[in-house]
Design brief:
Chain lengths: 274, 251
């Protein structure tokens, strides 16, 4: 018996990516609590750190000179955190609605699924970050968009890391069921101390600095401080971060495929529950 | 020359860590046939269907659907098959129309609007087409799930207890739609069921499973004759209680 030839339906299909984006968009726009939730926490964080910076700046000349490092840090951290969460939450919607098996028996390919999740991560991020960045201008005169080309470099590097982690976490949830859901919410927090969001890498003990420099976001936060304190754009840091991100992203995608294969072996695609 | 089977299962085995779900079964289904996988809970029906769909990887043996080895070559045929089960849901917050549109795009349906309109007529979805799927009754949800399963006019349709939790009237209506679809499309249908009436009405062949193995296989009339019974329910009980094996051994 000969296998049927590879049909056009088996090739990568932008239409299937659009179908998945449409599915998540329908969901997002049908629920105002989901939309509010996207803005609420980033706004609270930004206001808290912004006022703290104002207070410290009044009593310390260094922080007075280095205006915006806390607000900049919290906004960039939110890009990293919300980028991953936006990716993972869209995936979790399939688990919560017990729809994963329907998708896995459809012609949807893993790469199309991942691309749709990336588009939704960007969409959610735009909904949460743009209003909060505007609030930062209004309250503290900190203009994130004023960082220009540097912001683009920060943005690309942070998003690549967030998607790499999001892909890996989605694979874990697919393989282990909703029992692994907590990873989606908490995994990024290990990056908070290790990638030196609010302080320079030199603060860490020497052995931990090696760990920090193995993580792409560390280069971004160091780059941000160089820009805001020394007014110097460190392209070298961005290139190193990008190189590491290529490795992270490839590792995340390979882990996802391995976990998908493992899920097929242990039957978890059919269950989709806990 | 007879046409190649729509589904060919050969010495299929599935072991999980502590259990054997399927223990070396073989069967093949002719194109256009309608067959029931019959068996009690834990007989291995759902795992068998999941392996045919490429959702579960066999431990040993092989599954071919429309000539493609599953799950390795699944991308060659996934657009030609579909599946419906009350245990696999569709996104509850999306309306029926939105869900059908998304799946029509996923399956590459050429005219999603036209196809959804045709299925809306065929399956009486009109009155709740713009309601959230999660707010429908179980009968309405089953009709929506069936519409999703028929969106791509599949050549192979797999159903896992398609009328579970439905009232008799709705269940009978669903069976009528399935019969109609099979006649109209010439599709191959494999359904797992506990419901003997359903199997007697719909199926020309019954494969009975127990503890992961096939214990009998034949047309409903042949099974009734073999066990000396008047209904498939009695045959099923004989098999479940081991009386079939006992009578075979005595013979």
């Amino acid at each position: 018996m000969t296998a049927p030839a590879l049909p056009p339906a088996a090739a990568f299909s932008p239409r299937r990516v659009a179908a998945m984006v449409l599915r998540y968009w329908y969901l997002l726009r049908s629920s105002w609590p989901r939309l509010i939730d996207l803005i609420y926490w980033p706004a609270v964080q930004m206001l808290m750190w912004g006022f703290l910076q104002l207070y410290i700046g009044q009593n310390n000349s260094f922080f007075a000179r280095a205006g915006g490092i806390f607000i900049g840090a919290v906004l960039l951290w939110d890009i990293l955190f919300r980028g991953q969460l936006g990716f993972s939450l869209s995936f979790l919607e399939e688990m919560w609605s017990r729809n994963l098996a329907n998708l896995m028996i459809s012609p949807l390919r893993p790469a199309e699924f991942i691309l749709a999740l990336i588009v939704m991560s960007l969409t959610r991020l735009a909904i949460s970050t743009i209003p909060v960045a505007l609030l930062a201008i209004a309250f503290f005169g900190f203009n994130l968009f004023g960082l220009g080309l540097a912001l683009a470099a920060f943005f690309v590097n942070l998003l690549l890391t967030s998607w790499a982690i999001g892909i890996f976490v989605s694979g874990l949830v697919m393989r282990n069921g909703l029992g692994a859901e907590n990873f989606a919410w908490s995994i990024m927090f290990i990056f908070l101390p290790l990638t030196c969001v609010y302080y320079p890498v030199s603060v860490l003990p020497a052995w931990l600095q090696h760990v920090a420099w193995a993580l792409p976001p560390t280069y971004v936060f160091e780059g941000m401080r160089a820009l805001l304190i020394d007014h110097a754009f460190r392209a070298d840091l961005m290139i190193q971060a990008f190189g590491l991100n290529v490795v992270f992203f490839a590792a995340g995608a390979l882990a996802f495929l391995a976990l998908l294969k493992s899920a097929r072996r242990n039957g978890s695609l059919m269950q989709g529950g806990e | 020359m007879s046409s190649p089977p729509a589904i060919a299962v050969d010495r299929l085995v599935k072991h999980y860590k502590t259990a054997t779900a399927v223990a070396g079964i073989s069967f093949s289904l002719a194109p256009g046939s309608i067959t029931a996988l019959l068996g009690g809970n834990g007989a291995g029906k759902t795992t068998t269907i999941a392996m045919i769909l490429g959702l579960v990887e066999p431990t040993e043996g092989s599954v071919h659907v429309l000539g493609a080895a599953m799950p390795r070559q699944r991308q060659r045929v996934l657009h030609r098959i579909n599946f419906e089960s009350p245990y696999v849901e569709m996104p509850r917050r999306l309306t029926v129309r939105q869900n059908l549109k998304v799946f029509a795009m996923l399956y590459g349906v050429a005219d999603p609007k036209g196809r959804i309109a045709a299925l809306t007529d065929a399956l009486d979805l009109g009155e709740f087409l713009d309601r959230e799927t999660g707010k429908l009754s179980s009968g309405q949800r089953t009709r929506v799930a069936l519409a999703k399963a028929l969106l791509n006019a599949p050549e192979v349709l797999l159903l896992d207890e398609p009328t579970a939790s439905l009232d008799p009237d709705t269940a009978d209506w669903v069976r009528g739609r399935l019969e109609h679809y099979r006649q109209e499309r010439g599709a191959t249908i494999l359904l797992a069921s506990h419901n003997m009436l359903e199997v007697e009405r719909l199926c020309e062949r019954v494969i009975i499973m127990k503890k992961g193995a096939i214990v009998d296989d034949g047309a409903p009339a042949a099974l009734l004759a073999r066990y000396g019974r008047e209904s498939l329910e009695q045959v099923f009980l004989d098999v479940a209680r081991g009386q079939g094996e006992a009578s075979e051994a005595a013979q």
